[in-house]
Amino acid sequence: AGQSDAKQDWSYIQPGPADAWAGSKSHTFTILFGLKAAPTTGKGKLVLDFVDTHSSRPPKMQIKINDVSSIHDLPRGAGDASAHGEPNKGREHRLVIDFPARALKVGTNEITITSLAGSWVLYDQVALTTPIGVKTGPLKPVNKLLNVHSQPFLVERKDGKLYQPVLASVLHIGRPVEATVVVNGSCTRRAVGPLRA
């Protein structure tokens, strides 16, 4: 939060495990924000405002605010028209999550939104409110392996051997760096930095 462009860095659609077009797996969206001062009392509120949800396979979502976790079954939506460029045909749903404000901490905070089951949701807005006295601050550098998924196919290399590709998702906040990945003793290096189209 405060360091990215929502139009470029936040997808309007979050697929679920029922979506073959998105790999038939859970997808996690992550929000990071820094605090200089954190509350010790009161309540916070996270509002997820959805344009629509899938009409026959609505999603089950896990929401985590640092160490506070909750699971929510979302209602059925209106249909696929909203996902294909007609948001006015969606069925809005607002998920409001109240949480103890003491769940927030000084330094880097993390909100994750994970599709556990079902199909997609379409976002309109995500909003966080906190008690008075909370002060935003910078994010500290972060390097975190989010997940690793083997791909459902094999690739034949020049040497004639078959390999199964692996997709590793890494969260990196900070200056671009070079990362080293080691798998079964084989080492490769990759630059890690901001993705921009």
What does the model show?
The protein has 197 residues and is mostly beta strands. It folds into two domains: 6-137, Jelly Rolls, CATH 2.60.120; 143-192, no CATH class. Helix content is 2%, strand content 51%. It is built from one helix and 15 strands; from the N terminus they run H-E-E-E-E-E-E-E-E-E-E-E-E-E-E-E. The chain has one helix at residues 6-9; strands at 13-14, 28-37, 43-53, 60-65, 68-73, 93-100, 107-117, 121-129, 135-137, 142-150, 155-156, 162-163, 166-173, 177-183, 186-192. The protein has a five-stranded antiparallel sheet, with no helix packed on it. A four-stranded antiparallel sheet has the order 1-8-3-6, with no helix packed on it. It has a two-stranded antiparallel ribbon with strand order 10-13. Strand 4 and strand 5 (68-73) form a beta hairpin. The mean pLDDT is 86. Residues 2-128 form the Rhamnogalacturonan lyase domain. This is Rhamnogalacturonan lyase domain-containing protein.
Write the layout of secondary structure elements.
Layout: H1 6-9, E1 13-14, E2 28-37, E3 43-53, E4 60-65, E5 68-73, E6 93-100, E7 107-117, E8 121-129, E9 135-137, E10 142-150, E11 155-156, E12 162-163, E13 166-173, E14 177-183, E15 186-192
Antiparallel strand pairs: 1-8, 2-7, 2-9, 3-6, 3-8, 4-5, 4-7, 10-13, 11-12, 14-15
Pfam families: CBM-like
Domain Rhamnogalacturonan lyase: 2-128
Protein name: Rhamnogalacturonan lyase domain-containing protein
